[in-house]
Design brief:
The complex is a heterodimer of chains A (about 160) and B (about 500). Chain A is mainly alpha-helical and about 160 residues long. Chain A is about 80% helix and about 0% strand. Chain B is an all-alpha fold. The chains are: A mainly alpha (about 160), B mainly alpha (about 500). At the A-B interface, helix 1, helix 2, helix 4, helix 5 and helix 6 of A face helix 7, helix 9, helix 17, helix 18 and helix 19 of B.
Chain lengths: ~160, ~500
């Protein structure tokens, strides 16, 4: 079996376990709703727990299937994961992806709403363009400035969105 | 509604304002489609956030223009740089790029544009013809049929849109259905999966999830894999529509394939293009030319993906079930703007189908003039670095989601669904079934319980009505087929035959 397929099956195992756990939780929650005394007056077939149990059960079952497929395909998922994680962490593409995600997280969770929108967006745009070497500093400043101005005008002025 | 009244309604929504909006939508679509990394689905999701303050029909007209432009625009980058602008145009790279590299870039673009026009027109024709028929049929549907149809849509989308195991597509669809259950139950007002959070009481809004799910993974992926782009130069040669019509058999077959695949819930233009390309190659007298700059191959791919637009809108308008991922986001936009597609649409907005047909025709007309005119400026635009473009997309994702309800929770949702989208991509889980699951969740949930309630809790309601029985058998066949049951039976029969 190819290394990439083995890695995919390892991921399948873990994601399958995750989906099965979510499905199980949803199904149990559905059962709780189904037997809830607060819904005793509701006809059994119309009980909201019915679909919740059904969908949750299906998700759990399918998650289990994919986990088994992943386990058979990867043979030793835990050992494979132990081996793959340090290798992935060293990959430049992975690191770039993490940096990009971190920049977006900073913009969404730290800058958004704490400082005026125009300034926070300019900081985000200029910052991420600097990090990913988009060009000369003056080009980055101009592009960031023009973008912020357009977004502010379209959303803040024309669409009258109360920007944070 | 009389013919005159319908005509009046259609003309009312074809004034200068609408025409300019459709032109703007088509132009944005062509650009969004042409830029690798920005898909039509993402473009519609982003623009829905931007156009939420427009009057309902005007916003929908603009988004339909974007749909037409987006699918067609992807061929520009497929031909000029060998990278499909959208997944729908991946098959066009095979013959479009070799043609451009051989110095026939303009010819390839005109062929692709003409094929796109033929495909879109064929799709629109089918849309106008089949939607009323399907709508009338849908009036006979009860809760049992709607529930099974929703489930069938999610499962078939999972089966056909995946690149790895079909089970992954099903998981994506069922996970979408699970997400759709969050919030207050429609029938009993009971809080489900809300974790006592007031933000989750109203359920998870569809558009921010879509923006994050399609936008953020694309931003992260494009930023982590910056690559140099080789842009083909354009010659002066042009191809007339008549030259493309020489391949009318290929175009007609591809149009039918496109519409057929478009009607199947959740399967998009990309599948249509690949299937059509494969069929055309098999049927061709010169299959050896395919992949080396075959005009026939380019016509097959481009006609199919564009005719899929009309096909995908047929179930959207008649059943309220989208035929492709862009149509799924379009459905979200419809609902935001007060248009509820389905069998009752014909009664609530009797002229809407014909207005849609008119908007799509106008968009096709604009596409005809814009595609080649845009090719030369696009040579420059296509060289824009991802490091410049993608941060701007991230900003639009945030503001697009925020402007819908002015809630910070939507920004959080964009981020979380973006992270989920990345995980889905890594694990090769197709995104289309998830989208369809979220969209069809309320339909499946409420109709499942309504059907059970009507039958007094008897599950036989799902097999005793003719249409329900057909759908039920289709679901069982679909599942058994994917589990390899039929293949096993077939091989067993073969073995028995050999021994006897």
């Amino acid at each position: 079996m190819e290394e990439s397929t083995r890695r995919l099956r390892t991921l399948d195992f873990f994601m399958g376990v995750g989906f099965a756990a979510i499905g199980l939780y949803v199904a149990i929650d559905g059962y709780r709703i189904f037997i809830s005394p607060d819904l005793a007056a509701v006809e059994r077939p119309a009980n909201p727990g019915v679909t919740t149990m059904f969908i949750g059960g299906m998700l759990a079952l399918l998650g289990l299937i994919i986990a088994v497929i992943g386990f058979i395909g990867s043979k030793t998922p835990l050992r494979n994961a132990k081996q793959a994680i340090p290798e992935t962490l060293r990959k430049p593409t992975f690191l770039k992806g993490i940096i990009a995600m971190a920049c977006i997280a900073v913009y969404f969770f730290v800058l958004w709403g704490r400082i005026p929108y125009v300034i926070s967006t300019f900081i985000f745009l200029a910052g991420i363009m600097f990090i990913f070497k988009a060009g000369a500093w003056w080009k980055i400043f101009i592009i960031s400035g023009v973008t912020v101005a357009i977004v502010w005008y379209v959303f803040g002025v024309l669409a009258m969105v109360p920007l944070p | 509604m009389s013919f005159e009244q319908i005509l009046f309604e259609v003309l009312r929504t074809l004034n200068l304002e609408y025409i300019l909006l459709i032109a703007a939508g088509t132009l944005i679509g062509l650009i969004v489609g042409a830029l690798p990394g920005l898909t039509t689905t993402m473009g519609i999701a982003l623009l829905t956030g931007i156009t939420f303050k427009f009057s309902g029909h005007a916003a929908i007209a603009l988004l339909m223009g974007l749909y037409v432009g987006g699918v067609s625009g992807g061929s520009l980058s497929a031909i000029m740089i060998g990278i499909p602008g959208t997944p729908a145009n991946a098959a066009s790279v095979l013959d479009g790029f070799p043609l451009a590299m051989a110095g026939k870039g303009a010819k390839a673009i005109t062929v692709s544009r003409s094929a796109s026009i033929l495909g879109t027109l064929f799709g629109i024709m089918c849309l106008a013809f089949f939607t009323p028929i399907l709508s009338n049929l849908a009036l006979k549907f009860t809760s049992a049929e709607f529930c099974l149809l929703g489930l069938f849509g999610v499962l078939i989308s999972g089966t056909m849109s995946g690149t790895d195991l079909a089970v992954k597509g099903w998981i994506a669809g069922i996970f979408g259905l699970t997400i759709a259950m969050i919030g207050i139950d429609e029938l009993t007002a009971w809080h489900r999966l809300t974790f006592n959070s007031p933000e989750l009481t109203g359920g998870l809004p569809f558009i921010p999830i879509m923006i994050g799910f399609f936008g953020i993974p694309q931003v992260v992926e494009a930023l982590s894999a910056e690559q140099d782009v080789l842009v083909a130069t354009l010659d002066k040669s042009k191809t007339k529509l008549m030259e493309v019509l020489r391949h009318w058999k290929v175009a007609l077959r591809s149009g039918l394939i496109g519409v057929g695949i478009g009607i199947i819930p959740g399967i998009g233009e990309d599948v249509a293009a690949w299937v059509s390309y494969g069929v055309a190659k098999k049927a061709s007298k010169h299959p050896e030319q395919y992949g080396k700059g075959s005009i026939e191959g380019l016509v097959a791919a481009e006609t199919a993906d564009n005719s899929c637009i009309g096909g995908a809108i047929i179930p959207l308008l008649s059943l309220g079930i989208p035929g492709s991922p862009p149509a799924a986001v379009l459905l979200g936009a419809f609902l935001i703007h007060g248009v509820r597609p389905g069998p009752m649409l014909n009664f609530e907005f009797p002229a809407f189908l014909y207005q849609s047909v008119a908007w799509l025709l106008v968009a096709t007309l604009f596409m005809r003039f814009m595609a080649l005119g845009l090719a030369r400026p696009m040579q420059k635009i296509l060289t824009i670095k991802n490091a410049i473009l993608m941060p701007i997309v991230a900003v639009l994702c945030a503001i697009g989601a925020f402007s819908l309800d002015i809630r910070y929770i939507d920004i959080v949702l964009v981020f979380l669904s973006g992270a989920l989208g990345i995980l889905f991509r890594k694990g090769k889980y197709p995104p289309a079934p998830l989208v369809l699951g979220i969209i069809l969740g309320p339909l499946v949930d409420t109709n499942f319980r309504r059907a059970l309630k009507a039958s007094g809790g008897n599950f036989s309601i799902f097999i005793t009505r003719p249409i329900a029985l057909v759908l039920f058998i289709s679901i069982i066949v679909l599942i058994l087929g994917q589990l390899g049951v039929f293949a096993a039976i077939k091989s067993k029969f073969r073995r028995i035959k050999q021994t006897t």
